[in-house]
Amino acid sequence: MDTPNRQENSGALVAGVDGVHAGRKPSLDPLCRLLSSELERVNQLIVQRMQSPVALIPELAGHIVAGGGKRLRPMLTLGCARLCGYRGGRHIALAAAVEFIHTATLLHDDVVDASNLRRGRDTANAVWGNKPPILVGDFLFSRSFELMVADGSLRVLEILSRASSVIAEGEVLQLMTANDTRTSEAAYLAVIQAKTAELFAAASRIGAVMAERPQEEEEALDRFGRNLGIAFQLVDDMLDFSSHQSELGKSIGNDFRDGKVTLPVLVAFARGDKGERAFWRRTIEEQDQRAGDLQQAIHLVEQRGGIAETLSRARSYAATAIGALSIFRDGSERRALIDAAGFATERGF
Amino acid sequence: MDTPNRQENSGALVAGVDGVHAGRKPSLDPLCRLLSSELERVNQLIVQRMQSPVALIPELAGHIVAGGGKRLRPMLTLGCARLCGYRGGRHIALAAAVEFIHTATLLHDDVVDASNLRRGRDTANAVWGNKPPILVGDFLFSRSFELMVADGSLRVLEILSRASSVIAEGEVLQLMTANDTRTSEAAYLAVIQAKTAELFAAASRIGAVMAERPQEEEEALDRFGRNLGIAFQLVDDMLDFSSHQSELGKSIGNDFRDGKVTLPVLVAFARGDKGERAFWRRTIEEQDQRAGDLQQAIHLVEQRGGIAETLSRARSYAATAIGALSIFRDGSERRALIDAAGFATERGF
Q: Could you tell me if the ipTM is greater than 0.85?
């Protein structure tokens, strides 16, 4: 696990935010614009490779693929390949492979969490029940490896098969820490490092592998992706307790209802008084949740600084991510990736 | 799909059964004896590679791995490699990779089927609920690819990633044909071809790939494994309606309870009278099952020749499998593989 070096990185962040964005809010738009034609080819390949004579497969896969994800992970692969000066066409298929791994884990996650909504739409399990998403997840996962095998790089296969194992380990570890307010911050960080940051790291790293860049650049991109992934997940976990999100009509409180022990809860629990700890034990450990409990949880997280602390940590990881790009030359690719890292912590969705 | 050529293959079967086994019942024992030290190394590698710092993973994986499977698929990889004269050590890791794919699909299958018993023991989902087996299945699947990547053969990766996709397609197709007595025999055969025979074919084929044998031998081993896999699944489906199994105290009737439309049911339905078809529609399509229905189903399957017909087809596929081995030289490996193919149809478990 990388620990952010605040001193080193606050400079890079300032350079990133002030120098590049000149006061405006960081955004994914520059990266989307830069990669729009390549991203279009990735989307076409995804649709093409999720086909099967078994009609339910493209139907169900299409439901989640069309569900309006940000395509952040494939954009990292495309963007990092370009940052490394890659000029070939392999990054399209590998970006699609990365998105297939992500989509397979989403399908399985939603079954495991019994989630009914994702990005404001019914989940696949809400529409088709649990059985098809488990099996279609397996299919997409296999398809991902078929894409990588067709690409033919054993190094890429090594990075992404390793990432897939680590993701599964992270998901199991998350199950084991659920409903346990004694979860340590280290255990929480190990979960998000594995379930989220590992794929961000792998998706970024393979950009340097494709471009046959030196080990130093591979490691820099791994560090970029990994820290960005941690920042991204911290903000995800924070937004789940955001009263502002709630006012916007967005779905919140899913982690609370599932008894997931995320950083906002850990902070509120650690800083809470006896009565507050009893509240968390009842709602998270005993899963005894009543009307008004979510509002109370949001209130306690906010009041005890859980939102501010989580956001501050996320910004620190994002700064480390941006700092990792310092060895690459300045240009539209680097600026767009820096902007994407800034977006990870300043986004409202 | 290969169709068995009865004329061509009955000769081979007679040669196999009469010439080699001299009247005794075919058995897996010769293959087990021949491969015992290699199989021991496969088992050690499986235990070693299912380890993880996340304790639940080896615990749950150990439960199913130790659950007394026949290790048929890894034995095919080991046996076919030896048949092709392979003398290296790569077959150990690839046999373990094949078994990991199989184990991952078993974990997911048991969740999808809500099965409580496998091989007389509690299933992982019966012990831990549905969530851990979904995620540990994903872990084992990833580990399988890590083993293949470490082996380094893109051709093997291509064969096994393709097989994994086809297995998932077969499982989804099986879901779509469940509870539907209008399922055609062709659709049923497509399901078992995909969900079972594809991995048997791949496990066998990679023996020739490792030994760098010509395309003709690769294809012969694919044909051997594929037809053996179909025979094996036909017998599995037959045993689920076997009153003899029931007398032995073995678990039967799982497919019936799940509403799976297998060949014994298709035969009994096709040959049944109006009342019998109404019985199948009520129990399989409407899933309205009452006390005594399983006994009635077993009776109808037996009476209408569903057992005999399924076994006869299975023997025909097994004969085709044995015939495919004719291009290889006679020897202990070929005799043991022929015996294993005979065992597939004459087994009682």
A: yes
| Residue B112: closest C-alpha in chain A | A131
- The 3-state DSSP class for residue A122 equals strand
Name every residue whose Cβ is closer than 8 Å to that of residue B140 and which is 6 or more positions away in sequence: B50, B61, B100, B101, B103, B104, B107
A16: Cα within 13 Å, side-chain hemisphere: 30
Q: Is B157 on the interface with A (CB under 8 A)?
A: yes
DSSP state of A326: G
B214-219, long-range: CB < 8 A, 24+ apart: B216/B327, B217/B84, B217/B327, B217/B328
User: pTM, whole model, 2 decimals?
Assistant: 0.92
B138 touches A at CB < 8 Å: yes
Kindly identify which residue of chain A lies nearest to residue B155, measuring between CA atoms.
Answer: A149
Burial of B305 (C-beta count, 10 Å sphere; 0-12/13-18/19+): middle
- The helix or strand, by DSSP H or E, that contains position A284, with its residue range, turns out to be none
Distance, in Å, from the CA atom of B104 to the CA atom of B115, rounded to the nearest integer, reads 15
Counting as low any pLDDT under 50, the low residues of chain A are 1-21
Q: Which residues of B touch A148 (CB under 8 A)?
A: 161
Is the Cβ pair A175, B105 closer than 8 Å?
Answer: no
Residue extents of the structural domains in chain B:
6-337
Q: Please choose, from the candidates A242, A237, A256, A236, the residue with its C-alpha nearest in 3D space to the C-alpha of residue A181.
A: A256
Per CATH, the architecture of B6-337 is what? Orthogonal Bundle (1.10)
pLDDT band at B15 (very low <50, low <70, confident <90, very high): very low
> Residue B267: is its pLDDT beyond 80?
yes
Q: For residue B50, is pLDDT > 70? A: yes
Q: Which residue has the higher pLDDT, A7 or B23?
A: B23
What are the tens digits of pLDDT across the range B159-204? 999 999 999 999 999 999 999 999 999 999 999 999 999 999 999 9
In the block, which residue shows the tokens 């229905």?
Answer: B293
Q: Among the listed ranges A67-76, B264-273, B283-292, which one has the minimum average pLDDT value? A: A67-76
Q: Is the pLDDT of residue B5 over 50?
A: no
Residue matched to tokens 């990792």: A324
Buried b (16+ CB within 10 A) or exposed e, B60-80: bbebbbebebebbbbbbbbbb
Query: What is the amino acid identity at position A182?
Result: R
The architecture in CATH of the region A6-339 reads Orthogonal Bundle (1.10)
